[in-house]
Amino acid sequence: MTIPEFSERIQSTSLQNEDGVSLIDVITAIGEEKRTIFGFAIFFTLIGLIVSLSLPNVFTAKTTFLPPQQNQSGAASALASLGGLAGLAGGSLGIKSPDELYVAFLQSDTLQNNLIQQFKLQSLYEKKTLGDTRKVLKANVKTIADKKSGIVSIEVDDSSPILAAQIANAYVEELRKLLDRLAVTDAQQRRVFFEKLIAKTKDALALAELESKKAQETSGVVSLDAQTAAAIKASAELRAQIALREVQIRAMSSYATSQNADVQRLVAELAGLRAELEKLEHGTGQDKGSDKSVGALANLRAFREVKYQEAVLDTLVKQYELARVEEAKEGPLIQQVDVAVPPEKKSKPNRSIIVIMAMFGGLMIGLIVAFMRRRLKMAITDPALAENIRIMFEAWGLRKKNI
Predict the structure, then answer these.
(1) How far apart are CA 130 and CA 109, in angstroms?
(2) Ranges of the chain whose pLDDT falls below 50
(3) pLDDT (tens digit, 9 = 90+) per residue, 335-352?
(4) CA-wise closest residue to 247 among 274, 270, 224
(5) Could you check whether the bond before residue 349 is cis, i.e. omega within 30 degrees of 0?
(6) How far apart are CA 157 and CA 141, in angstroms?
(7) Is the dihedral of CA 6, 8, 10, 12 positive or negative?
(8) Which residues is 154 bridged to in the sheet?
């Protein structure tokens, strides 16, 4: 078979598609425009090489830490008390997992502002505002929470490997400081809660002691008899226990219903304590009796208020110490698993990938230009194709339509 016969057979086969473009036309177009195609490929390859060489080396330092492990946080307890609605409530509130809470802390403006000030990143990144500096810092830092292991990782990119490692470790330290200021775990929340109550009770006790001193000076009675003092002390202790139960019930009402077993237990204890207090006060006949003067009654009430505040303070201090013990049992809030070290190798840019992508991009553009040039050449001898090209130019406004 001769070459002309072979060429004629190829053109008569299915190599020709519906648009009349055959494989021979494609190969011919590539051969005729090979200089254009390879020229574009070489040009874009050189551009990719120049761009890749101009990009600075970026190093990635990584640190990992283990967040506090606790049974349930306040929000989790609240969701658990909802039963079947927990999933719906959790989704509406945006609460997905405890680890994501610490990722949100890491991305907070307060923490990032401290890092910017510590490492003088605003001048290093050459940004005028603090907000723009935070945007650059967020772009250079990636935080990932592994839901299976519970470990949170921090990856920091920077042109300096030493600075990247320092910033990564500083993230963990700043998170520790933030958690020290915020009450995150249950034990922390109880400790902070009792700290506030103790401070208020101390102020109330100081005021009660001042009023008691004034009442003693007014009535002239310096001390009470032993039986009355003992009854008042017992009454004050009962009142303190009642106040503690009331506080606990109010605190639990934010996440538990009245059907909760712990709430019902506290309500029963509260009723028993109130009954015992009523019995004690009626049995001793406090604040009653015609033989007592107004000054003596005022002294008695002031003394009872002092004993009551002392009993409340004593109870709150015990609860505060228990909360501190539980907080100590939880261990350190943040346990750093891997300390970030300066990386030895750069993580990006991948210069070979940039050059290869630029080369393929140049080839594609070269092929498009080659086929467009071939079509324009064919339009000179093909009136139908020339008409189609004219319509295309008119559609894009490159040539005025004929009127």
Answers:
(1) 10
(2) 6, 10-11, 13-19, 71-95, 289-291, 403
(3) 888 899 999 888 888 888
(4) 270
(5) yes
(6) 6
(7) negative
(8) 63, 143
